[in-house]
Amino acid sequence: MIGLNNLYEEAIQLFTQQPNLLEAVPVLFASRDVHLDVMEVDEDESIFFYNLDFKNVDTTNIQKYVDFMQKSGLLDFLKHSANRSLVDYAYGVEVGLDSNGRKNRSGKVMEDLLEGQLRAVADFYGYQTMTQATAHRMRQEWQVEVPVDKSERKFDGALFDSHKRRLFSSKQTTMEVEAVN
């Protein structure tokens, strides 16, 4: 799959013929979760969430999985940035999940992917965005009180709608937030 020009079509064909290969996709995102919760903005400007199960693949909807790979930037990465075998890449990610140094490097790639997606949503809706957001930083910059279960919990990313006082976090939550006095 690496470097193919018509990667989207090739991916649909490959995963239709061998849907079990989709089980490897979460590893390519440095995740051991086989159920991924996805936030998406549709053409009507509505934000919605859906779940992709990579363990029990919905073979009637392979396109949904490939669309996710396209919108997340994975297909673009495979086409333009990956320069060795996918097996080697996946092995490196697996090793990286167990190794702090590699984990930090692969984490930076994921942060960059997430930041690009958050900026696109923020620009489209006029939201403010923050990566590696903590309750303290959100309070300082957005004057909101964010309930957290840990004192310095970090969110991979956050979007803030100042007109409706809503905060969207990377943990599939939308919360109404109160202004800080």
UniProtKB/TrEMBL annotation:
InterPro entries for the chain: Restrct_endonuc_II_DpnII-like (IPR007637)
Superkingdom per UniProt: Bacteria
Domain Restriction endonuclease type II DpnII-like intervals: 2-164
Molecular-function GO terms, alphabetical: DNA binding; type II site-specific deoxyribonuclease activity
Biological process per Gene Ontology, one example term: DNA restriction-modification system
Protein name per the record: Type II restriction enzyme MjaIII
